[in-house]
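Review form for a predicted model. The reviewer records the input and the model, then writes brief findings.
Reviewer: anonymous (R2)
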Amino acid sequence: PTPGQTEDIGNDNVKITIQADNYPGESKWQILDMDGVELAAGGPFDATSDVGATIVQSLQLPSGGCYQFIFLDSWGDGICCGYGEGAFSLEMDQQLAFSFSGPANFRQVRRYFGNAPGCPSAEGCGNGELDGGEECDEGVNNSDQPGATCTTTCRIPDTVPTSAPTSGPTSAPIVEGDKNIKISITTDNYGAETTWFIRDSSGAKVLTGGPYSNIVGGASYEQEFAGADTECYTFVIEDSYGDGNCCSYGRGGYTIDAFGTTVADNLEFRDDRARKQFGNCG
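Model under review:
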């Protein structure tokens, strides 16, 4: 839409209203279905003309669905109240689904809406209390800034499977011989967000793993392959949601044992990826 103005709603049944703070270029939003597929997105907004502006955007969604709304602040200080009085709200079928205002530091805030049976209540998640199967740590948020409340960290974990898988998918080793490199992965509650790979010095992927299952409390996986001790390898682990594998939603980690040495011992990461080189890397 034109900066600071309202979109023509027309036949749309979902209206998103954003009151920008002084740094609208840091703000954007997404709507996902419950499988994590993006259905709509907006922002980042104009860093000059949208300062303090009221921005209204609209779209059409089936009323009988269940959806996730995610508001993101790239700086990690939220939208209120140190640098302007920011806020946002969402209406569906002319009914207020939720609203949010500060003060709170956050990188991401998630809310649920929709009329599908069993859809999580927006107010049941992130109200400062542990209820409805949610998991929050007071004083901890996605940007590790002190002073935040459960409002900025809450997510509702997926249903625990009846049995946890014991291993992830494997790739065929490219080097013959004894398996002398082992990758051990412990997931957080959202293993479906975790993938990893190993590249050799030519850039070719020699092993991959994940995504795994969403299991409250996490699960452990191991994969091995035969590597060459003359080669330099790069291990990269990624989290598709961008909050890493520790520590708001479980305590994940990764361990790398190579050529008789532990080169990474249950390491954690807290953003979208981490990298570790090992082998004969000079």
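Findings: Confidence is low (pLDDT under 50) at residues 1-9, 123-176.
Further findings: The two ends are 53 Å apart (CA to CA).
Recommendation: see findings above.
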